[in-house]
Amino acid sequence: MKISNTIIKSLLAKLPNQEVVFYGAGENMKAILRAYRECGLNFDYTIWDINAQNILTVQGERVSKPDLETVVRGKTAVITIGEPFINFTVSRRLALLGYNVINAPKELSETAGGGVSL
Asked: What are phi and psi of 61, to 5 degrees?
């Protein structure tokens, strides 16, 4: 069962009104971008994916290689990767760099009552 745009929009509404990094340029990111546009939100974001050389854009938005070296404080990163091990690995790495990490697949599944995916 797919998660509705309403549930995705509830996640987006929780994001700070500052630049957000979305990590992952697959189907989950496409669903998030659709909801972002429908909501008329206006915060800056960057899309990172380790395969940026193969995935140049997602719905017309540029995809960049991730910066996994620079230490930040208080910036938000939303992990959109559904595969649990990769999601965990990326989440942990970004948290160690000082990002406030949101696990989008987990957060959205819990909001929807579990048992669903983006």
From this structure: -95, 135
Percent of the chain with pLDDT over 70: 85
The pLDDT of residue 96 is above 90: yes
Q: How open is the CA angle 44-46-51, to the nearest 5 degrees?
A: 165
The DSSP 8-state label assigned to residue 58 in this structure reads E
Cβ atoms of 25 and 85 closer than 8 Å: no
| DSSP string for residues in 7-20 | HHHHHHHHS-SS-E
- How many C-alpha atoms does 49 have within 13 Å on its Cβ side? 20
pLDDT tens digits, 33-88: 888 888 777 788 999 999 998 989 998 999 999 999 999 988 999 999 988 899 99
- Strands 76-79 vs 45-48: parallel, antiparallel or unpaired: unpaired
Question: CA torsion 38→60→100→92, rounded to 10°?
Answer: 130
Tokens of 25: 């340029």
